[in-house]
Automatic annotation (TrEMBL):
Domain of life: Bacteria
Domain named Helicase ATP-binding: residues: 9-286
EC numbers, comma separated: 5.6.2.3
InterPro entries: ATP-dep_Helicase_C, DEAD/DEAH_box_helicase_dom, DinG/Rad3-like, Helic_SF1/SF2_ATP-bd_DinG/Rad3, Helicase_ATP-bd, P-loop_NTPase
Region feature (Disordered): 676-707
Species this protein is from: Marihabitans asiaticum
Cofactors required: [4Fe-4S] cluster
Family: Belongs to the helicase family. DinG subfamily.
Biological processes annotated in GO: nucleobase-containing compound metabolic process
Keywords: ATP-binding, Helicase, Hydrolase, Nucleotide-binding
Protein name: ATP-dependent helicase DinG
């Protein structure tokens, strides 16, 4: 087996990149962690080429051990980059060194794939069933047209992966051709041998590198479904997002609509669901009368009684839905499976809320579409992550215990100059914490020469009544000076839409403004990257994972410090608990949250060695607040200023001298393993700023949802 240095050199040469000291240091640290079984937290700034720094030692280990390494990411952009760009080129580059071509696979949740059995009518649908092509004419509605597209595409696709379908379809249409893990018939399905999901997972068991997402990895670790193949190396990229993704995965909610939907599904198979329907009305009235926010001091009596009744009713329905042995239909009854999954979910959620676990937070939230929603989530997942991810006690096929090395990496793991904040949330501090090492390999970019951090100190403090007129004036001036080329990162969709509407009115046809929610994120980002006179405004999804190197993004706007809302149930619960223990809840929770988001958002600006531009903070607290220093230390070291005219001149100069936008490729067609099935490579850059080719049909997106 060639040495790591030889393999890394071959990989860098193969992708047309250059050797970076930080990349070499990180690759050796990853190799050391794998060989010693230790855990590693490594901060690798943009431009390091961290993907290669962990993929090369991961491939080396996988080929030695005969067991795959698993890479989990948070965003669709990075999954697409690894599967469509990094691994194809890496595999080509290392084939000669290793004697065979390294293999890889993309593994995602069941909802991301077409279900052949559902396409064939094997499951009932609340929208009235799937539409045959002959039933849809030119006058048919959007849903029918989308389903026809899905049927035609399903006959051609090799992967069945939703993200291969461009343009995409609505969630309502996709639900008509997909099933959840709970609804799936598994081995009893008549289409089991042809199932896209099963074929992709079978293929993944034979590869060197498995790429998945945080949510899917969490389900595999926490629920013991063994969805991923046995592995002793887990690499978590975008690790700053892991806690939020894990929390989201194990958050449950309950609505009156869910009761009614379960009742409809079960009502086709049992004598009566009147009790469940009546309870839905009662629960809806209870929740409508209750104030939004955390339920403190235990469940109200009326709500506890309603949940107890729900648990009893659903227990009875589950008994009725259990098919009699030898009944002849229990093997392939999709309708029964869907109904059982819906009722079982209600039973589980009601039981969890009634249990009132020590770390669970229960709250009531309003939803414009679903009405009042009762939610329950853990205040902390630190111990869960420690027990199920860092102290994994999995076994190999022979039943032997396997120690797993976990490598967590991100451009933003050190907040305020320390790994401590992130380590606490991951269960890596306190008594009994597993040993780990922290490493910062820096970034090759010259941030003070490439970027300006501008704080608009003259603007009024952000308020609750929307964007101030002065703030909109500032946005307009900055965007005009930049000639477009603007990524607008807002703390809420309300603010993003308000800014979008205002700028469209003010800028007219001169500069186009796109807004998150108007199309798929990947489609919007491609449009933004292709046209320098375009702006893209949005919220959380755009704060990370958006990789637009070159002249199309020379201004990043951040409307306000992204603190969690004061009434956010989980943040407030965490803050109170830390304060109760004598700590500083604001700095540990709110300031840490804001620092992480700011670092990620500001990191969208400089994506490669010749990028230049401005990050504009429209919140003067970035320099006036007592916590400003902590936030500033978490950012890339841009050149700081509050001089508005200097910034406007710099943006105009950049606009006047800008090179044409870099080429933007379309999504790739995937095979069963998620790998690109056609196309030659063309030059491009990855999200770390490392220059290397793109498949001819581009970097296709990948879903971020779990099983």
């Amino acid at each position: 087996m060639p040495s790591l240095d030889d393999l890394l050199a071959a990989a860098v040469d193969g992708v047309g990149g250059t050797t970076r000291p930080g990349q070499v240091e990180m690759a050796h640290a990853v190799q050391q962690a794998i060989s010693s079984g230790e855990h590693l937290l490594v901060q690798a700034g943009t431009g390091t080429g961290k993907s290669l720094a962990y993929l090369v030692p991961a491939v080396q280990h996988a080929m030695r051990a005969g067991r795959p390494a698993v890479v989990a990411t948070a965003t669709i952009a990075l999954q697409g980059q690894i599967v469509d760009r990094d691994m194809p080129r890496l595999a080509d580059a290392l084939e000669g060194e290793l004697g065979r071509r390294p293999t890889y696979a993309l593994v995602k949740g069941r909802r991301n794939y077409v279900c052949r059995h559902k396409l064939d009518g094997g499951f009932p649908d609340d929208d009235g069933g799937l539409l045959d092509v002959g039933e849809v004419d030119a006058a048919a509605g959007r849903l029918g047209q989308e389903v026809v597209r899905l049927r035609e595409w399903a006959e051609q696709t090799e992967s069945g992966d939703r993200d291969e379908l461009v343009p995409g379809v609505s969630e309502r249409a996709w639900r008509q051709v997909s099933v959840s893990a709970e609804e799936c018939l598994g081995g009893r399905c008549p289409e089991f041998s042809e199932c896209f999901v099963e074929q992709s997972r079978a293929a993944a068991r034979e590869v060197d590198v498995v790429v998945t997402n945080h949510s899917f990895m969490a389900i595999d670790a926490f629920e013991g479904r063994f969805l991923l193949p046995p592995h002793d190396v887990l690499i978590v990229d975008e690790a700053h997002e892991l806690v939020d993704r894990v929390t989201s995965t194990i958050t449950d909610d309950l609505t009156a609509g869910a009761l009614r939907a379960a009742g409809r599904r079960a009502g086709k198979l049992v004598e009566s669901t009147d009790e469940l329907d009546d309870l839905a009305d009662h629960l809806e009235a209870l929740l409508a009368e209750a104030p939004e926010g955390r339920l403190r001091g235990g469940l109200p009596d009326a709500l506890a009684l309603a949940l107890t009744r729900l648990r009893d009713i659903t227990r009875g329905l589950l008994t009725e839905l259990t098919p009699e042995k030898g009944g002849g239909t229990d093997g392939v009854d999709g309708g029964r499976q869907v109904a059982t999954a819906a009722v079982e979910d209600l039973f589980d959620v009601a039981g969890r809320i009634l249990e009132e676990r020590e770390l669970d937070v229960v709250w009531l939230a309003g939803d414009a579409r679903r009405g009042p929603v009762l939610r329950v989530a853990p205040m902390s997942v630190a111990m869960l992550v420690r027990d199920r991810i860092f102290e994994d006690d999995s076994t190999d096929e022979a039943g032997n215990r396997t120690d797993r090395s976990v490598i967590l990496t991100s451009a933003t793991l050190e907040l305020g100059g320390s790994f401590d904040s992130v380590a606490r949330t991951l269960g890596l501090s306190g008594e009994g914490a597993p040993p780990w090492r922290g490493l910062d390999v820096g970034s090759p970019f010259a941030y003070p020469e490439q970027g300006i951090a501008y704080v608009a100190e003259h603007l009024p403090a952000p308020g609750r009544d929307g964007l101030a007129t002065q703030t909109l004036d500032e946005i307009e001036a900055l965007v005009r000076a930049a000639g477009g080329r603007t990524l607008g990162l807002f703390s809420s969709m309300r603010a993003a839409r308000e800014a979008t509407e205002a700028m469209r009115e003010r800028l007219g046809e001169e500069i186009e403004v796109l807004c998150q929610g108007e199309d798929q994120i990947t489609t919007l980002v491609r449009a933004f990257a292709r046209d320098p006179t375009t702006c893209l405004f949005g919220t959380l999804t755009l704060w990370q994972g958006v990789d637009v190197p070159g002249s199309s993004c020379q201004l990043v706007l951040i409307d306000r410090i992204p603190f969690p809302r004061p009434d956010d149930p989980l943040s407030s619960a965490r803050t109170e608990e830390i304060g109760r223990r004598g700590g500083n809840g604001f700095m540990s929770v709110s300031a840490t949250h804001a620092a992480l988001r700011l670092a990620q958002g500001a990191g969208r600006l400089i994506r490669r060695g010749d990028d230049k531009g401005v990050v504009a903070f429209l919140d003067n607290r970035m320099i006036t607040a007592r916590y400003a220093g902590f936030l500033q230390r978490s950012l890339p070291p841009f050149w700081p200023t509050t001089d508005r005219e200097l910034v406007l001149r710099a943006l105009r100069r950049l606009d006047e001298t800008a090179e044409p936008p870099l080429p933007v490729a379309d999504p790739a067609r995937r095979g069963l393993t998620g790998a690109v099935v056609s196309g030659k490579a063309a030059a491009g850059t990855d999200a770390d700023g490392a220059e290397h080719p793109l498949p001819a049909r581009g970097a296709g997106p990948s879903a971020t949802k779990g099983e």
